[in-house]
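Continuing the series of single-chain predictions for the mutant panel. This is the parent chain; the variants come on the following pages.
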Amino acid sequence: MDPGSHLFGLIQQLYAAPGSVDGWSTFLDRLRASLHGSTAHLISHDLQSRHGDMAATAGADRGALTQYQEYWSAFDAWAYSPKHAQLGSGAVTVGDSLVDHTQLQRTAFYADFARHYDLVRIIGGVIEASPAAASVLSISRSERQEPFAGAEVTLLNALVPHVQRALQLHRRLVESRAAAHNLAVVLDRSARAVLFLDASGRITFMTDAASRLLTRHDGLSVERRELWASNMADRTRLRAAISGALSTSSGSGCATGVVTVDRHSGRRPWIVLVSPVTRQRTPFPGIESTAAIVFVKDPERMAIPDHATLQAMFGLTPAEVKLTRLLVEGCTLQQAGTQLGLQRETARSRLKTIFEKTGTHRQAELVLHVLSASPVI
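Parent structure:
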């Protein structure tokens, strides 16, 4: 069958690939079948270190992939052909144009690797090229098959520009997801619970800290994806603050700002800050951008650094970190020693070492120093 007849279906499959390794593998498998190839790969070559990395693949033996990436990529006869270095981005070529087949057969790359895994006949499209690196779309055949020729070259020439655009989309999606993930990590490490609201006041995102806070039902809760206060007076003021922030985000009104919310537990009230966000227009109906952000702070919560942070800040051992955290949480030295199973003199000796490492002299000074030096968001 004429490979050109598959072009439209390949393009459809290709633009479903960005954002997913599995999507790229599905596209490559369809491309491999269309060109009657044994394997298909997206390969990134570092031309300086002579290392090749298979970004996505289809039809390849796992052992072949491992061998190629760990050893044989440095001896890839096509990738390091002088003729390959002359190819620019978007170029399509076949293996025999890069290395004469008779010459290829005399290489260790062919004898000890390529022929064993049916990676002998190739056609490739250069997706990106620079003096230091190259990304290539490569399809392989076995020695028993005919070399790739005109019809296959025509198909790949038509396809390569779409592969370039699809890879650009893929990178943008991956970068956006990574940025969103990193933002979520930062927010989850914050000392405050954080919630995002859309233009109607519905919660679209909340950090883990916010989720834990709201499951307590200690004065604040979620009802129908909205943030509510249990006390009627607090509820009225909270709704007014949210309404003001939403109005401000749309260009009218005035945000109320800070609201305190009483707690059933009798602890000090939550401090709630509602901040408007200037909304960005979205061209897609049904997709609302964030209109307000709600920060909830627990005034009774002490921001105590975690174990790794205390070790990094003061050079404490794991055992010293455990004792320090208990003291900062309000335990006496005797109580902390009991919890840790320490003899009285051992606890005193360990505390003396902690004082030396933190530059403090008394327990109260230690607690203040740890809390004030804590890099809390």
